[in-house]
Amino acid sequence: MTARGLEPPLALLAELTHRCPLQCPYCSNPLALERPGRELDTAAWQRVLDEAAALGVLQVHFSGGEPTARRDLDVLIAHAAKRGLYSNLITSGVLIDRARAEAMAVACLDHVQISIQGYAPEAADRVAGYRGAQEKKRAAAAHVRAAGLPLTINAVMHRHNLGELEAVITLAVELGAGRLEVAHVQYYGWGLENRAALMPTRAQLERATEIVAGARERLKGVLTIDYVVPDYYARRPKACMGGWGRRFLNISPSGHVLPCHAAETIPDMHFESVADRPLAEIWRDSAAFQRFRGTEWMPEPCRSCDRREIDWGGCRCQALALAGDAAATDPACALSPHHAALAAAAERESAAPAPDFVYRRMTVPAV
Ligand code: SF4
Ligand code: FES
Asked: What global pTM score does this model have?
């Protein structure tokens, strides 16, 4: 894709902080979490929002870590609204009480997405690594709805909670959500670290797919259900981020501008900071965004494949993690020479007893 034909990003994921009271073993944050002292301050984030709106970004997703751990969140929400940006809060919900929900509504937040770890409180709290999390999430959802904010529930599914999927769907309706994301774990970062502990069997996946299909039919007009399947049982990869540097950008807590949340796992790549260069220039010109943008960089079999502008060769971070080369075809693709090993790992790990979780913590043990 040439710079001239480049469209502005649709959405910006603002990772305000890596602080979080939860410790989910599939967290999308990098293994090397950023320390609170390195976070951008309020004025810097406001400038980022100004630059994003000027660039043509339409949506900002306030995320983390746990974004409500930032005391200035309401100021940033109000600033996004002032710049005409649609705002979505991606939260665990455990820090949201009635006053907080009302303050965010007053600041003109557009939408809230609360994650849940399952249905039964004890099991869900074990995954979260936080006692009482499920109860707080239910309360937060009620506060969000009472404040008049639209709600999506995000349920991350894996071998331990797929048996609860029907109950999770019913819970989303009870909580007043208009949308439910049933998202199988994606195996990068912490998820990859915990792959054997989380990988479902093919039979579990097939049952879940049937349940989602039935619920979609039954709940038409009540609940919209998005469904994200695990790459490991797929024959073609997903278009990760809608293609590298095409539709989305992430900004890390310290201000690094990334094409995806896991991009910093790719070695020998320099990600520029909003502190050093305008966002529009980074989006358009930075070497990191150019590296895998479009189709020029692709090796075979992607280069001559008729899906190359559909899935954009899949996920660069997964290619690095599983094939050892970020420029390789994503091993989730059955045409990749690494696909058989990936499929075999899924079958093997899901059939073996689950190991203990490695919880997401600020201090990462040496590997
Ligand atoms: Fe996608 Fe590449 Fe596989 Fe074709 S060969 S389906 S472009 S990942
Ligand atoms: Fe980085 Fe898919 S997570 S490209």
From this structure: 0.94
What pLDDT was estimated at residue 32?
87
Cβ proximity of 283 and 292 under 8 Å: no
Token pair belonging to 110:
């557009």
Which bound ligand lies closest to the C-alpha atom of 248?
Answer: 2
193 pLDDT exceeds 90?
Answer: yes
- Report which ligand 1 atom has the smallest distance to the Cα of 301: 5
Chain length of the chain: 367
237 lines ligand 1 (CB under 6 A): yes
Give the residue ranges of DSSP H helices in 8-108. Answer: 42-55, 73-82, 98-106
Q: Give yes or no for residue 357 having a pLDDT over 90.
A: yes
Supply the DSSP symbol for 303. G
Mean pLDDT, to the nearest integer, of 147-175? Answer: 98
260 lines ligand 2 (CB under 6 A): yes
For ligand 1, say whether the CB of 307 is within 6 Å of any of its atoms.
yes
- Per the CB < 8 A criterion, the answer to whether 82 and 309 are in contact is no
